[in-house]
């Protein structure tokens, strides 16, 4: 008897896999740039989005923008590098909005300086936001929401800088590269620990996108970056949205511990 072709999946079922209706997504650094773009994607597919960032006026603008798109949004001001602020913020979110189904660890900091001249204060700032604050926030969300409910999606925003060294023609960013490399393995280790608990953990490793953080780098190094990017362009405002939706939804239920570059091919060569 000849093998049968696998049954096709009805389109309605595929749509359901990506549907985030009723889910709550917490996005750090969500008031602008990549964080806001990812909030747009998750909100468009039905999620209620909760944004945190340091500046209240930027959060207010982001909330108005999302509400104009028909997306339900809540905002909470706070600095991820201020560790004493993390637990109370999570408590407020859970009390006022509800559980957290999706956590997007997007907030980040960087510093450019030759390693021999890198200030310790700047090193600690980068580590505190990119790694220590991310750990503490993730821990609170796991304890208070995801583990008790037996499900969740964690998406860490790492970087291609965590997958490779730094081009010597660019400004040295040892702290940033080190912190993002740590976040890559944070993703793997936490994914393995949470795999039998209904919680997936993956990371997105963006290449060069025009944001406030990359403004200085692009001001002098854009041409060199483009020359070494096989697609010969920077990331656009839409290039993280599809992957973010995938990793936040039931469509990625069998994916965990993955660090996925969205970089126009930089890490392919």
TrEMBL record:
Keyword field contains Oxidoreductase: yes
One Pfam family this chain carries? Answer: adh_short
Record-annotated Ketoreductase domain positions: 23-197
The alphabetized UniProt keywords are: Oxidoreductase, Plasmid
GO BP, sorted A to Z = carbohydrate metabolic process; fatty acid elongation
| Key word Ribonucleoprotein present | no
GO terms for MF:
oxidoreductase activity, acting on the CH-OH group of donors, NAD or NADP as acceptor
* SMART domains named in the record: PKS_KR
From which domain of life does this come? Bacteria
Q: Which family does it belong to?
A: Belongs to the short-chain dehydrogenases/reductases (SDR) family.
Q: What is this protein called?
A: Putative short chain dehydrogenase
